[in-house]
Amino acid sequence: MGTDVTPASLDAKTKVRSKDVVFSPDHNLVSRLYVPDGVKPNQKLPVIVYYHGGGFCIETPFTLKYHEYVNTLSAQANAIAVSVDYRLAPEHPLPVGYDDSWAALQWIASHAGGSGPEEWLNSHADFGRVILAGDSAGKTSGCDDPWINPVFDPNLEKLGCGRVLVVVAERDILKERGKEYYEALKKKTGWGGEIVFWEVKDEDHVFHLQKSTCDNALSMNTKIVEFINGGK
């Protein structure tokens, strides 16, 4: 579906540089990479892998609101960010979007030894600090067949990460599902990691994109950045 497109660039305000890189030549899928412009040679930074929302039908990493959000997140967290594109329905129904998201993660992981195809990741990615993030549809991209079993994956105890942050908005119709995911990880599985739950009052679905400069959005970003950098 057609939406606005913002080119990659050096952002004069955030001092973050971005560029587009093909991660799946067979399907011409592109990720947008972000890196703080002042990063030193071979300085290692956390890696944020971001999956956009849009109901698996609309949006891309290149729309203005996603470009600005991930750009800002990269600047505030002092992190490399990879904003992932995936094919959309109805032309490409699920699980195609999940498969593309997994392919992007595999492409990123191919740089762990320092010899992948993208130099920004080879030089600056700290693969001991990788954060999977997303909103709306994008927050499900790392789950095991969530279209079949969206609330409780029976293999949650095998979740590979050690820390999880769940953020919901008070007025969001999907809030309860976020709370159920939090409760499942905390109490109903053998997963032994750290989980943090935070509810943003008086806000609705993806408010941080629609009202990116409001006080609640700024507070949420601060919470996310603290979580990212708390993994040092």
Question: Describe it for me?
Answer:
The protein is of the alpha/beta class. The chain folds into two domains: 1-150, 3-Layer(aba) Sandwich (Rossmann fold); 156-232, no CATH class. The chain contains six helices and seven strands; from the N terminus they run βββαβααββαβαα. It has helices spanning 64-77, 96-109, 119-124, 175-187, 207-210, 215-229, and strands spanning 16-24, 29-36, 45-51, 80-84, 125-134, 163-169, 194-200. A five-stranded mixed β-sheet has the order 1-2-4-3-5. α4 (175-187) links the parallel β6 (163-169) and β7. The termini are far apart. It comes from Linum tenue. Belongs to the 'GDXG' lipolytic enzyme family.
* Global shape: globular
Instruction: Return the structural class.
Output: alpha/beta
Question: What does the radius of gyration come to?
Answer: 17 Å
What is the correct CATH architecture of the largest domain? 3-Layer(aba) Sandwich
- Overall number of strands: 7
Strands ordered across the widest β-sheet: 1-2-4-3-5
First-to-last CA distance: 39 Å
Q: CATH H level of the largest domain: which superfamily? A: Alpha/Beta hydrolase fold, catalytic domain
Low-confidence spans: pLDDT under 50, at least 5 residues? none
**CATH domain topology of the largest domain:** Rossmann fold
Q: Strand-residue fraction?
A: 15-25%
By CATH reckoning, the class of the largest domain would read Alpha Beta
Helical content (DSSP H or I, runs of 4+):
25-40%
Number of domains: 2
Q: How many alpha or pi helices? A: 6
Mind summarizing the main beta sheet? 5 strands, mixed
Order of helices and strands: EEEHEHHEEHEHH
InterPro entries: AB_hydrolase_3 (IPR013094), AB_hydrolase_fold (IPR029058), Carboxylest/Gibb_receptor (IPR050466)
GO molecular function: hydrolase activity
Organism: Linum tenue
Pfam family, one: Abhydrolase_3
